[in-house]
Amino acid sequence: MTTVSKPPNRRRRTTMLAAAAAFAVAAPLAASAPALADANFPSPNGNTSIASIVTYDDLVAELNRIEKTSRFGVDVTTLAEVGTEVATSEQGRDLYVATVGDGPEAVWLQGRIHGNEPYGTESLLAVLKELGTNGSPDWTLLRETYTFHVIPMYNPDGSEANIRQTILQDGTERRIDLNRDWGAGKFVAAESEAFYEYWTMVDPAFAVDIHHQGLKAEYGTGDDVTLSLGISLAPGGPTLPGIEGGAYDTLTRQMHVHVYDELAKYGSINMDRYQVGGSLEIDIKGGVVSAMMLGFDYKGLNPEGHSNPAIFFETSGNTSDGSLGQKARGKSIHQNVLALTELLVGMATGEVQQEDAARWDEIPHAPVTGYQTDDGVIPATF
User: Fold this and answer.
1) Structural domain span for residue 172
2) Strand partners, 167
3) What is the spatial distance between Cα 65 and Cα 47, in angstroms, rounded to a whole number?
4) Is the CB of residue 212 less than 8 Å from the CB of residue 315?
5) Hey, which residues are catalytic here?
6) Which residues form the signal peptide (predicted)?
7) What is the number of domains present in the chain?
8) Which pTM does this prediction carry?
9) Burial of 141 (0-12, 13-18, 19+ CB in 10 A)
10) For 148-202, what is each residue's pLDDT tens digit?
11) How is the beta sheet containing 280-283 ordered, strand by strand?
């Protein structure tokens, strides 16, 4: 397995961040969690049971419980209460956001934009619980540095149906991929309009999106990949270097180098870079986090052109393919919680910003042959 070299004299934190993350993974619905003994991570057997997957009603109940038991002011609200013009899903479900922290910069954390990718919800609930209850120096620093806007279930309708998309309620029953619905000629689904307007209210400093992917083997070794690190506008590609003078091209790579270094210490986590088609980097502008980086202005709601860097995590296995591996539920959530907490604290301490962005190329990946864009493949020699 290819490894990333560690820079010398790296400053280490003294608090047990990993221990806090491990504790968080026992929440929020531990009573229904399967045993983790002899866990297969992920499962290639197509035997996924969705019985323990968090439902929309589970989400609402857990958010209310976290709010009530919070020591540090978790505020759970709906977009209807916030006052966005569109405030519910296509099927009329309330869209929930939880906020916590008093810092001057906002951070946007979202999960389950694809309904068949469930562990983003549980991972964000676990992190939200720690932000609301953990008084350790690291979590205190996070609350003092940032105000977090946590969206554990971006796509409640798709989540309830165990499908990737949402379904339009305009008589067509057309399925819309919400992660391709921000951009020119887009915003077809209610959820897209609602969360876009909320994003223009928040103006986050950066964003993280949690996904699942299919089963994947590492290039060159064939080892099972458990987590892929992704940037939706490819570093060094056709688009990202031209945004903010290349600042996001640098920072997004630094963010993932930091996550890779910290999570590489855990033997159960094997990471690579997210690619499609075997050797293509994605450079898709219609995705939510891509539109954030591009500073997209829809209906004049973003006239100042606010933009922010954004990255995503891809846990291997999903419910539609039957490859999620129910026994690996705890490990799947755990690696997301670790990735998020290491990234967030690294950003707050400035460790991320000191990383060598060029080391992104050392994270395992297939040789890049091109860029998958909205309009087709652009060769790497563009």
Assistant:
1) 17-379
2) 175
3) 31
4) yes
5) 314
6) 1-37
7) 1
8) 0.91
9) middle
10) 999 999 999 999 999 999 999 999 999 999 999 999 999 999 999 999 999 999 9
11) 280-283, 370-373, 376-379
